[in-house]
Each structure stands twice: as C-alpha cells, then as structure tokens.
Amino acid sequence: MDKIEIGKGFEGIIDWMRDHWGIIFDGIVTGVEAILSSLVWVLQGPPALVMILLFTALAWRVSGKAVAGFTLIGFLLIHNLGFWDPTMDTLALVITAVFISLLIGIPLGIWSAKNDTVNRIARPALDFMQTLPAFVYLIPAVLFFQLGAVPGVIATLIFSLPPCVRFTSLGIRQVPHDIRDAAISFGSNPKQLLFKAELPVALPTIMAGVNQTIMLALSMVVICGMIGAGGLGNEVLKGITQMKIDLGFEAGICIVILAIFLDRVTQELGGSRKNENSKKH
Amino acid sequence: MNGKGALTLTLVIISNKIMSFIKIKGLYKIFGPDPKRVFPLLEKGLSKSAILEKTGCTVGINNASFEVEKGEVFVVMGLSGSGKSTVIRCLNRLIEPTRGVIEIDGKDVMKMNPASLLECRRKTMSMVFQHFGLLPHRSIVRNVEYGLEVAGVDVETRRAKALSALELVGLKGYEDQFPGELSGGMQQRVGLARALASDPEILLMDEAFSALDPLIRANMQDELLELQASMRKTIVFITHDLDEALKIGDRIAIMKDGEVKQIGTPEDILTDPADEYVRAFVQNVDKSKVMSAASIMRKPQTITIPKDGPHVAVRAMEKAGSSSIYVVDADRKFQGLLMIEDAVALEKKGIRDVRAVLYTELYAADPDTPVADLLSRAMTAKYPISILDDQCRLKGIVDRATVLAEVVGEDHEDTSTVPLERLLSESQKVDLEEINHG
What we know:
CATH topology of the largest domain in chain B: Rossmann fold
Largest interface: A-B, 25 and 33 residues
Helix content of chain A: over 70%
Number of strands of chain B: 16
Strand order of the largest sheet of chain B: 6-7-8-3-9-10
Shape of chain A: globular
CATH architecture of chain A: Orthogonal Bundle
Structural class of chain A: mainly alpha
CATH topology of chain A: MetI-like fold
Structural class of chain B: alpha/beta
Low-confidence stretches of chain B: 1-18, 409-413
Distance between the termini of chain A: 66 Å
Radius of gyration of chain B: 30 Å
CATH architecture of the largest domain in chain B: 3-Layer(aba) Sandwich
Number of helices of chain A: 12
Oligomer: heterodimer
Mean pLDDT of chain B: 82
Low-confidence stretches of chain A: 272-281
Order of helices and strands of chain A: HHHHHHHHHHHH
CATH superfamily of the largest domain in chain B: P-loop containing nucleotide triphosphate hydrolases
Helix content of chain B: 40-55%
Largest sheet of chain B: 6 strands, mixed
Strand content of chain B: 15-25%
Strand content of chain A: under 5%
Distance between the termini of chain B: 76 Å
CATH class of chain A: Mainly Alpha
Number of domains of chain A: 1
CATH class of the largest domain in chain B: Alpha Beta
Number of strands of chain A: 0
Shape of chain B: elongated
C-alpha cells in the first residue's frame, strides 16, 4: 500500500489558506503587532529601576512580603546580568499571548460548559493541542506569519489555550447544584445566572487555569526564540548555537526568575478570595 | 348571550371561592431519552424498575395530584427517590414537568413564557434549599437581596428589605459577614431570609432543615412555626422525616415511587394509614421484625472466673456505678450474675470463689432472635436478657429500655391494658391495685 500523504495534504491546505485568506492573516499580524509594541513601549519605556520597584510593589500587594523580596532581588539580578530588555520583551510576548488566549479561551470554556455538543468536540481537540509537541506549532505559525514576534505570539497562544478553556469549563460545571438552583429560582435570567452566580463561584478554578495558561505561555515563548520571536528565548538559542555556555545559563536564570514571579503573583490572584471565605473553617 | 355571560361570571365567583392556591393535577416527570414511550407502559401498570429496564427512563413523578390552600403548611414526605424533591422543583419549573397541570393562584405555570416565569419566580414564590445554596462570594446582606437585585429593585429599597428580613430571622448584625463564616444553622437562616426578602406568597422549602443537627433543627422548626403564625405564607415543605412532617404540617402528602400515596392531616395519617407503605412509614412496623437481638444488644460488664474474685468484681461495679456484674469462665461461657451485696459479703468473709452465690434465674436468647419476640420477656424479666451463642458464650445483653425503644409505635394488638375511663365507669370500686394488675 502506498504511503498516505498526510504531510502533503497539510501543505496543500496551508498553501490554499495562504493564497485565499491573506487579508485575514495580515489583519492578525497588524493587530498582534500593535498590542505587542505598545506593551514593549510600556515595559521598556521607564528606567529599569522604576519598573523593578513597580513589580515589587505589585508582588507585595498581591502575594505578600516574601514574594516581594524575591521579586526585588531577582529582578535586580536580571538587570545586573544585562538581560533587562530581553526579559521585558519576553514578558510582553507572554502578556500578549495570554491576553488573546483568555479572550478566546474563557468564552469558549463557558460555551463548552453550557453545551454538551461543544464540550464533546472541544475535549478531543484540546487533548490533541496539548499532546502535540510544542515545536509543531512553530510550523503553521511560520508558514502563515513568517518569522518574528507575531508568529511567536500565535504559536504561544495556541499552545497555552487548552488549560484556560478546560479550567473555565470545569469551574462552571462544578458550581454546586443548590447554588445554581437558588440563582434560577430567585428569578435570574441566563445572563444574571452566569455573571452573578456561576462565574464568581467558578473564579478560583478559572484563575488556576489562567495561572496554567501563563506558565505554558512562558515556556512556549522561550521555544519561539527559534523562529526569531526575540526576548530571552533568543539569548538561550544563541547560547546553544554559538556554544556560549555563560550566556545560555544566565538567560536560563532570568527565565526561572520571571517564571517564579509570574506563578506566585497569578496563583494568589485566584487563591486570595478562597482563603478569605474559608478562613474560619 | 346575556345569560351565558352571567353564567360564566357565577362560575368564576364560585371557582374563586373553592379554588386552591396551588393546584397540581396529573403531574408526570419522566427522566430519560424518550419520555413518550413510557406513558403506555405506566397505563399498563408497570413498576418503576420494570420501566427503567425496558426504556432506560426513570419515572420521577407518576400522576401526582394535590391542592394546597392559601396560608397552609403542606408537607410532602417520602424517602429519597420518592420524587418529592422533583415535585417541588416542578412548581417553579427548575425541572420541566413532562405532563400535567400546575396552577398557582389560577395561573397555569406550565404555559408561562420565559418572561412571566421569571416574574413569577421573583414575585410569587421563593425557595429554601437543603444545602443552603448561598453565594460564597457575596456578603450575607447581598445574598439576601439577591432576588430583589435580579428583579431590578433599586439599591436602597432592596437593602432595606434585606435588612428587615435578616432581623426577622434573628441575624441582625451579621449582614457584612460571608456565608463561609457562619454555622449551618445560621446559613439556613440566611437562606430563609433570602426567601422572605421579596415577600412572596409561596415558600418552597426543600429539605430545608435536613442538613442541620437535631437540636438546631428543632429550633428552626419552632421558629418557622412562629414566623408562619404571623406571616401566613403558603408553604410547601419537603422532608423525609416523619417527626418533622407531623410537627410543622397542616396537611401531609406521602409519596412513594413518584406517586402520592396519601394526603391528610397528621392525625389522619397516624390513625388511618391509606396503605401498607404508609403504615410502615408511620409505625416502623417492619423494624422490630427485621432487626435481630444481635443488632441491638450491648456489651455487658464481665469478670472472668476463676481468675477474678469478689475484690475485682466490687471494684469493677463501683467504677461503673452498677449493682451487678456478669460472670463468665475462661472460655467466656456464661456462669451467672453476681450481685454487689453478695460480692461484698464474700469479700468480708475472705472467700475467693464466687460461684456459690451467682444468680441464675435469667432468660437467655439466641443472637438471631427478632427483637419483636423479645418484647414480652423483656417487659416482665427483672434483669436484662442474656444473648448467648450455641456454645453458651455470652455475646451481649438486651434490656427493657432497648427493646422498647426499638418497638415503640409497633402495631401490636393491645390486650394487656384497658382505658382507665372504661374501668371507672364499669365499676366504681375498682381500686388502683387492680388496674395495675389488669
């Protein structure tokens, strides 16, 4: 039996889409670039020390003294190592990708929680997306958007989408029966049910999904260094390809610091409300 | 033409007079893929389980009909799976009934469009849930005002109404706390306040007190009755607890397998159960016949001879505050009962062997004996009945109080007592001694 030409078929589809949907892709590129460049401008505009203090203040407010202390020392170290600009580039990529990811993922999660058919279709699709090796996402991203930061954002947002959809859907499905029944029996319309009862009750779970999305996005953004997305991934890649062990290692440390900062801060965003309510239990 | 109009008018007046506030007629709820297939089978009289096997559909409610008067507390009682919670959820269409008529104040709930259904839920009826169903992210007062908020009532009005509802249930001062900070009983008060805030005509209470511990539960029942005395709401109350039903219900409907088995006042239900199921429910009739001695016996205090003597026995009895102790040998074979006075006497005389003074006029029974059969013996025996296995080993004892507790309410033909009044009227000279013997 002849080989089934899955690869060739895929290539054909990509080519066709590139020829016929060019305008859409151009639009996406413009939109993503606008978000990205304004974020870079915000993050890199002020002096590094001002930004470090702002991040520390944020960590203090959200997660307390320990995380704030870590943030101050960690970010000062990044600055000292001379990786401030690539770190901010990476952060901008992560924020852009996560922002778009949530914009798509949360409504999709709500939809799949409300509609069993959507859920049945979404689940295998999400499984597929999560098990596919991360590098594979680089291929269509590059094919549609060439090299640079935009395909990096696109690949990242696709890669980090599943947990956001899953956790949102799970959170809403897990809203206790009595709470949903109560909200309906007191005369909530579907919109009030969603926004006044279901989403607030599901919020801790959804925030756990957001945290996962951010962590996945960070790991993918580094890989996107391979397609010229810039930032810390680029530095690591340089370290590998040019055998500059010191450069690669230092960039690696910066990634770890950024990862811990993002994780701790976003974990608290979801957890704080839960703690507040279960204080007396 | 004119005559017809007059006739209709009279009919309306008459029906207004006799019409019940809530009216349920021929209500069915069938869960499953194809409910229509089930109706012919129900008409044939197939059981719930046979229908489930045949069609994969569960019959939640099977032709339920009842009417509730205005200002009445109507209790629907049944075990889990009897369909009682489904019935109450059909009233406000949290569950869509498959077939039937539900009328509230003359309006057909089944025919309401989404807008008027919302209106009805916001104004006419509200619900209290078994597990409270409070929103954890909202403060107490914001929970209570939820119904008014979704109905679009302005902030000040709804806050004022919520606060007075909280005061009504005795939770003044708790308005800014969160549900997670309150005990179960207090959370259910919040649930009640939330239901009262919009001043609905109907309260639907779904096992509202079942999740609370017994003492708080009794308190809540009393308070509900107190509130009801002044509010005169129409209350539909679901419970699986007979005592609760008898306590708060003006009338009770008993449900089984989705059918309403009997409707009546507490008195009706107790004195004249409609069928075997109701009788069993009301009188626990099966319980004492099914339960064995082994299931109600308790472990007695024992000493073992020949190793233990009167000293050990007295010490053990003193410690337990009892006047007798069971004596077994090394193989746990039952020897008899040792009284404290005998043990003390032996102790004084310095005799170690207790066998000579053991009391053996006792009754023994097999562990498998039904509790009902122990009744008469337990009532007359001076000491508890010993439960021995086939090798005469002491397994436990059953005393009068235990047996009584198990069979209370049992439907025994009562020949051992006569009404005092009859005796007095029959003969003036009967003295109390004779009555006691009679």
